[in-house]
Amino acid sequence: MQRSHTVRSRILGDIATGRLPFGTRITIDELASRYGGSHMPVREALRQLAGENLIEFAPGRGARVRRVDIAFVENLFATRSALEVMLVRRAAQYASASVVAEIEMIETRLEAEAAASDYAAALASNRALHEAINHAARNPEAATILDQHWILLQGLWHSVGFGPERLPGVISDHRHLIRALAARDVEAAGVLMGAHVLKARNDLLSRMADRNAGAS
Fold first, then answer.
1. pTM of this structure
2. At what angle do helices 28-35 and 4-16 cross, to 10 degrees?
3. Right CATH number for 4-65 from 1.10.150.120, 3.20.20.70, 1.10.3720.10, 1.10.10.10?
């Protein structure tokens, strides 16, 4: 029998990759069939995800993947900006040479994936790079909050499209961030991360607006 944490992981994966789009109505029967399990672990997984604000329950209407709008995205990025700037400043203080080398390896992989037009892999590597920076900051509570945000962000990018035209800017930002970390330049790291998060926010909001305009 599948355990609830396995079902939870599979639901998260489907949200992140867009197979369960935001706002999609779901039932326990449907998910049990989808994942080849029984009702009990599905019910428990949905309860856990509701506690993380990824699943919404409405009386008499069942469950759905949470809905997102522009106000939600603005709030999400406001939180991310505050936390990521704080964490990258701490990472510039604490990251060892081996940790910086690991971050640079992730970036090299991302650049190879971008060159091969493997944008899904590049998006995953982008997440891995940010997680490595965040975990180098020695603040697991803040890093955990940002880790949860990545599911939402990946789902959002899949819903609006992660355009290849954005990658050169992302790569340039990452290279400057890595240099700041290697130099233990706390101020530069904070400024660079703040600008990096702001550019991602503006791009995502622009794509959401274009999608909404097309739908109307």
1. 0.84
2. 90
3. 1.10.10.10
